[in-house]
Amino acid sequence: MIVRELNTALPWYRSLLGDPDLTPMEGVAEWKIADNAWVQVSEELERAGGSNVILQVDDIEAARREVDEKGITTGEIADYGFVRVLDLSDPDGNRVSLVQDA
């Protein structure tokens, strides 16, 4: 995920993912979300706001309640028959989609 300023974006990502597992260099934070999967947030003013990531959840209704309780703005859960999707946007407009298989 590419953001304008990491220090501005970090509170949002901490609310969603907790504290970063790594900060390998200035302007970069990383979260280990599975044994072989990471989410990286990095600072690059010119490219900020166009990233997407999809995170699978077991219970999308519970995930929505959890992010709502953390103050993260959500939209409606979209049901496509084979998958249900809840889109979130970080302060730079990057999209984080929470998905549950139907």
TrEMBL record:
Top-level taxon of origin: Bacteria
Q: Which Gene3D superfamilies match?
A: 2,3-Dihydroxybiphenyl 1,2-Dioxygenase, domain 1
Which parts of the chain are coiled coil? Answer: none
Q: InterPro entries of this UniProt entry?
A: Glyas_Bleomycin-R_OHBP_Dase, VOC_core
Annotated VOC domain ranges read 1-101
Q: What is this protein called?
A: VOC domain-containing protein
Output the lineage of the source organism.
Answer: Bacteria, Bacillati, Actinomycetota, Actinomycetes, Mycobacteriales
